[in-house]
Amino acid sequence: MRILKPETAFLALLFCILFNYTTVAQQGGISVEQDNRFEELLNEKRKINPNIIVNDKYKIQIFYGENAKARKTLTQFKKDYKDLDGTIVYESPTYKVWVGSFSSRIEAEKKLTEVKEKYPYALLIKPNK
């Protein structure tokens, strides 16, 4: 072990004291500025979400797969069937396109036969979330 000379030890101690004296932690507060349109957008989303709530009604699933294809399928479906609403539901790791909201199974099956002409892999579901 190396022993320092007294003057070297004094300089090292003085350096440590001065270094600690001049350094200070960051001080200040955080200020967040938010665009007013952001709050408006959140309010609109809150209004829309109650319409998408899964309930005891029957639905038709026309697609199951990746996001881009699900969006394309829903867009095409809305062009083909203007009378039915549709939504994309994410269930990890895939996206599902659900359309319609039918109170009875008979009504849903009638529409399913019509939808199957254009979307052969469509199936009837009754979500229970």
UniProtKB/TrEMBL annotation:
Signal sequence bounds: 1-25
Keyword annotations of the record: Signal
InterPro entries, A to Z: SPOR-like_sf (IPR036680)
UniProt cross-references to Gene3D superfamilies, sorted A to Z: Sporulation related repeat
Name of the featured protein: SPOR domain-containing protein
